[in-house]
Specification:
The chain is of the alpha/beta class. Helices cover 34% and strands 18% of the residues. A nine-stranded mixed β-sheet has the order 3-2-1-4-5-7-6-8-9, sandwiched between helices. Strands 11-19-15-17-13 form a five-stranded mixed β-sheet. The model has no long low-confidence stretch (mean pLDDT 90).
């Protein structure tokens, strides 16, 4: 450990970390060899902690790189959000205990200690260094006699029944690819106990909500802040079902990325508050753009639970209702929106040195990077600079002579590279046939930190799955197509999409089809203006 780490451990010990119940062998191992800090330094740290600052948490965030903290999902919550969540909790009945599922430096527990002077304070933490900091903050604040830190995984922590419990905190955000298979199996199994399906693509925060339901009893309540993507994505279906079911969801406050709810990531946040065992007729939804507007979790609008049950994407409901302007229609009435084809192995199917002998008729200029559409402006006129995608027909019997020999050589190379083994290839009718869609009259990007780029595709370029193609349901004139691109290029905002952790905004085909656009007659009029 770095010297700064030893100093942090030393500070935690001298502030009283060992006096908090639940001391572990892992923390004792960290404490070994720690050297004493000056009494003046410790006194200054204690003063700052008593003044509701978090100097140890700040040092921890500097000591651990963002990448190291990301693996454990450690992102500490701004004090304004902590206070707003506690303000909501104080309007409920006083709890017998307060539980923070991912305690970190104990910002929530320290705040709860003052808000609920008789409540037991329990924090669960998987990182022994963070656990030491949490202990130190609680001890320095004078709350050690009613505090306990559990070093372990919240998913396997059994808290037992002990009076009304407030669950409050910021569960760790960890992407599914960093979650072990055994825990993914746990998620599926535990969800089935409630008659629910779970996706193994879910992030760690979904697991923490499920673990909360497993630990909670009727009358318990809570407020947890997480990334907001579960409101919309398919793998958030379990959490949406828990919210409307066992969790007893009361409301959701969405905090936009510009408010920096997570200092380490440009991401939309969602504060979910609930009361276990209840089933309110309506749920309160609210959207906040600035942290200074978040004094509590009240406000917003009431949405009937039937509406939530019928909607697959909830973030749309956090905006004020929008009416379709006169003479406008949904884009889906004019065009079908299709994502481009997945090749399954771009290195193989995008042309390069390995495809030079193939006949030109199987090489299709294609959009393979979103940047190509963004740089094209409103019209893609020339496809000569685009990369080409190999798209062989399912029936190879049409090739003869030298063309047949070239295709056979390519297929042997593809087999050698495992081109027939991938999931996509193995689920095609013919593994060698990518099946590109026909050229779309309009192409669009669908994932970026900006609104989509819409481009009139005069060059008849194909597209793979980094872009959407807009295919008119009925014939639209060139004038109407250009006017449609003009409107889509200026009249669409990122708020119409779904925002993920990291600040990326995504438009699924169905979401793009719900965009309001001028109807055919209005497109004709606008083109003449």
């Amino acid at each position: 450990m770095k010297d700064a780490g030893f100093s942090l451990v030393s500070a935690a010990l001298q502030l009283g970390a060992r006096t908090i119940a639940g001391w572990s062998r892992e923390e004792e191992s960290l404490a070994a060899g720690a050297t004493a800090l000056s009494s003046k330094t410790v006194a200054r740290l204690r003063e700052r902690i008593v003044a509701n600052e978090d100097p140890l948490g700040e040092i921890f965030a500097e000591l651990r790189t963002r990448e190291e903290r990301r693996d454990l999902g450690a992102t500490y919550t701004p004090s304004g959000i902590v206070q707003a969540m506690l303000a909501w909790a104080q309007d409920q009945e006083s709890p017998a205990r307060v539980v923070d599922p991912g305690v970190g430096s104990a910002r929530f527990l320290v705040g709860a200690a003052s808000a609920f002077p008789r409540a037991e304070l329990i924090g669960v933490e998987i990182d022994p260094l963070a656990a030491l900091i949490a202990r130190a903050n609680l001890a320095a604040g004078g709350f050690g006699h009613r505090s306990r830190i559990i070093l372990g995984d919240y998913r396997q922590t059994k808290l037992g029944a002990k009076g009304r419990t407030l669950f409050i905190g910021n569960p760790p955000y960890v992407r599914h690819h960093l979650i072990e298979p055994r825990w993914k199996a746990w998620l599926v199994q535990k969800a089935r106990e409630f008659g629910l399906d779970a996706s193994q693509l879910a992030g760690l925060h979904v697991y923490f909500f499920l673990a909360t339901v497993l630990n909670a009893g009727a009358g318990d309540y809570g407020a947890l802040i997480t990334a907001a993507e579960w409101l919309d994505v398919n793998y958030g279906k379990l959490l949406r079902a828990l919210f409307l079911g066992k969790l007893g969801g009361q409301g959701i406050v969405v905090i936009e990325p510009a408010a920096a709810p997570f200092p380490d990531a440009a991401s939309t946040a969602a504060i979910t508050f609930f009361r276990v065992g209840t089933k309110p007729a309506s749920v309160r939804l609210r959207r906040v753009k600035r942290l200074k507007d978040l004094r509590d979790l009240g406000g917003g609008r009431l949405v009937r639970r039937e509406r939530l049950e019928s909607e697959r994407r909830w973030s749309r409901l956090t905006f004020a209702a929008r009416e379709c302007p006169k003479d406008f229609v949904e884009l889906g009435e004019l065009c079908r929106v299709h994502r481009g084809q997945v090749t399954g192995a771009n290195r193989l199917w995008i042309a390069g040195d390995h495809t030079t002998e193939l006949p030109e008729r199987v090489l299709f200029p294609s959009i393979t990077k979103a940047r190509e559409l963004i740089m094209a402006g409103k019209v893609l006129e020339d496809s000569s600079r685009l990369r080409r995608v190999v798209d062989l027909p399912e029936d190879l019997g049409e090739f003869e002579g030298e063309d047949k020999k070239a295709v056979d050589r390519f297929l042997r190379l593809a087999l050698k590279r495992g081109g027939d083994q991938g999931y996509i290839a193995s689920h095609r009718r013919a593994w060698w046939s990518v099946g590109l869609r026909k050229a779309a009259p309009i192409l669009a990007t669908y994932m970026a930190r900006r609104p989509p780029a819409f481009v009139r595709n005069i060059a008849s370029a194909r597209h793979i799955n980094i872009a959407h193609g807009l295919y008119p349901r009925e014939l639209l004139s060139e004038i109407q197509l250009r006017a449609l691109v003009d409107h889509l290029s200026t009249g669409i905002s990122v708020i119409d999409g779904r925002t993920y952790a990291g600040g990326l905004t995504k438009f699924e085909p169905g979401e793009m089809e719900r965009l309001f656009v001028p109807g055919p007659d209005l497109l004709s009029v606008r083109s003449r203006q």
